[in-house]
Amino acid sequence: MEKLTQHVCKSCENRFIGSYCNLCGEKVLHASDRSFKKLLSNILIAITFADSKFIKTLWLILRKPGFVSREFSEGRRIKLLPPLSLFFVLNLVYFLFPVIQLFNASLNTQLGTPFAQFYKGVVATKAVALNMDLASFALIYNLKTVTLAKLMVMVFVVISSLPLNILYRKRNRYFTDHVGYGVELACFNLFLNAIVLSIFAAFLGLGKYLDELTLTFIFIVTNLYFVLRSSNEFYAEKGSSLILKSMVMVLFLKVSLEIYRAVLFFATIWSL
Predict the structure, then answer these.
(1) What pLDDT shows up at residue 187?
(2) Is residue 59 part of a domain?
(3) Which contiguous run of DSSP H or E holds residue 4?
(4) Which domain holds residue 93?
(5) Is the model's pLDDT at 39 over the cut of 90?
(6) Burial of residue 16 (number of CB atoms within 10 Å: 0-12, 13-18, 19+)
(7) In the prediction, which pLDDT does 2 show?
(8) What domain count does the chain have?
(9) Which residue, 260, 178, 174, is CA-closest to 219?
């Protein structure tokens, strides 16, 4: 009979048998864990996200909106990647190449919003205070706003989840459930309306066709699909009420995006 080797955990000093500490979960490192092959495998997983939970969770968000939020709110979590973890991974990928101005908003994009005239006055005052011309100011603004946007996307998530507390107040959902649903919605937008569209714009030469009007249309259509499907899945909404509440929600999503961009604008101006 093969003798079982006893190990002493490097983290908590517990004595155990097997590959993992039964108290803290620390793994015993073997020579194979330090091999070049293992290193390449870990890099491949990190770059391609070749993790079954990642792929499965993202696919479910696209194919069956609301299902992931429902599973997590009802305690069935082990088979899926937490939406918040997925959100941070997608957020990182998007902000490596933020071609599409969705959650990142350059100065040029901000000056194309309904608040453009007011923003121009704020920009002019700040540029004078910094003794810069508009071109130099735009350069430092764009660099700064990308950094801040990475941290502030959750502002959009929280704002977009607020009307859900009113629309679905009788659906026996907690505030955290609505926020979790908002995280799933943000993952959907980050992947489809930010990363995928950025790939189309950067590598397929479609950037010239993706102006603000086109992007707004795409945003409305894709989010209407998500909200219609997910409201039925997560809130068990049906019939005409489903259609009406979904349209209200999509309208508020656009408002939430503009509020988020306004917050981002003033946070960037303040930080310069």
Answers:
(1) 93
(2) yes
(3) none
(4) 51-271
(5) no
(6) middle
(7) 43
(8) 1
(9) 260
What's the whole-model pTM score?
0.76
Residue 173 lies in a domain: yes
Q: What is the pLDDT of residues 214-232, one digit of tens each?
A: 888 888 899 999 999 999 9
What CA–CA distances, in Å, run from 125 to 31, 112, 121?
62, 18, 6
Helices (H), 111-133: 116-129
Banded model confidence at residue 98, pLDDT cuts 50, 70, 90: low
Distance separating the N- and C-terminal Cα atoms of the chain: 70
Residue pair 169/266 in contact (Cβ under 8 Å)? The answer is no
pLDDT in tens, 135-190: 899 999 998 998 888 888 888 888 988 888 888 887 778 888 999 999 999 999 99
Q: Is 73 in contact with 180 (CB distance < 8 Å)?
A: yes
Per the domain annotation, does 83 fall within a domain? Answer: yes
At which residue do the structure tokens 């409201």 appear? Answer: 231
- What tokens does 28 get? 């015993």
18 domain residue, yes or no: no
254 by DSSP, 3-state: which? helix
What are the tokens at 242? 């489903």
The structure tokens 């930010």 sit at 194
